[in-house]
Amino acid sequence: MTTARRTQRERRDQAESALLNAAAELVVEQGVRSLTLARVGERAGYSRGIVTHHFGSKGELLNRLARGTQTGFVPGLDGLPPGSDRLLRLIDGYIGALGQDGVASRAFLVLWAEAATDPELAPVFRERDEAFRADLCEDVRAGIEDGTLRGDLVPAEVAVAIVGQLRGIGLQRLLDPRAVATERLRHTVTAYWRRSLHAGGG
User: Fold this and answer.
1) What CA–CA distance (Å, rounded) separates 184 from 195?
2) Which residues form the DNA-binding region (predicted)?
3) pLDDT averaged over consecutive 10-residue blocks of the chain (202 residues)?
4) Residues 61, 39: contact at Cβ < 8 Å?
5) Which pLDDT belongs to residue 201?
6) Cα dist from 64 to 30, 104, 180, whole Å
7) Of the candidates 187, 130, 198, which has an alpha carbon nearest to the alpha carbon of residue 163?
8) Three-state SS letters, 40-107
9) Looking at the domain that runs over 70-201, which CATH code has it been given?
């Protein structure tokens, strides 16, 4: 009985993963407005009914896609305490991940850009950006408290600036990959923030 349940769960998880990957591919290729549950099912090799069973609606599918593409985007941060080291690793790792050109990261950037004019996407990405900024604020506050970051920093302002830069680099990479050499840029940008934020400028 336990084995049967596990197998069923594995099949369900495999189907959801395939459907989310198909949705990401379609978003990258043709944008959000052309996305339908039927097309996602067809791309993944399933019926529209299966897509509806797993997600219920296009809105929930996009919600799950947005959350899934952002989760684990920068590996190696779990378990690190808040502070300047985690902050700089996030910046470096984020730009490095952009260079991998995975369909999930490209889909997230397309969704994020379209959220500015799509009322269905806007609430999801406001929440995602708010969570991203909250994590950055936590790092900045911790760095100020332990003396590694400048005491005159305003965490919320630093967070807005970092998110803006990282997402802006991502959109440039999406539009013209040749113009954004991520392996060199990640070191330049990380060094810039280290100089700008650290106490003593070092």
Assistant:
1) 17
2) 36-55
3) 64 88 92 89 90 89 82 78 96 91 84 88 88 96 97 98 95 91 95 93 58
4) no
5) 61
6) 19, 12, 29
7) 130
8) HHHHHCCCHHHHHHHHCCHHHHHHHHHHHHHCCCCCCCCCCCCCHHHHHHHHHHHHHHHCCCCHHHHH
9) 1.10.357.10
Phi then psi for 187, rounded to 5 degrees? Answer: -70, -40
Where along the chain do its domains lie?
Answer: 2-56, 70-201
Cβ(148)–Cβ(199) below 8 Å: yes
Q: Indicate yes or no: pTM above 0.85.
A: no
Residues composing the chain: 202
Q: How far apart are CA 55 and CA 51, in angstroms?
A: 6
CA distance 128 to 107: 14
Query: What is the residue type of 107?
Result: A
Q: What is the CA radius of gyration of the chain?
A: 19
Do 200 and 110 contact (CB within 8 A), yes or no?
no
Half-sphere exposure of 113 (CA within 13 A, CB side): 18
**CB contact at 8 A, 151 and 167:** no
Phi/psi at 180 (nearest 5 deg)?
-125, 95
Distances (CA, A) of 25 to 29, 100, 103, 192: 6, 15, 6, 34
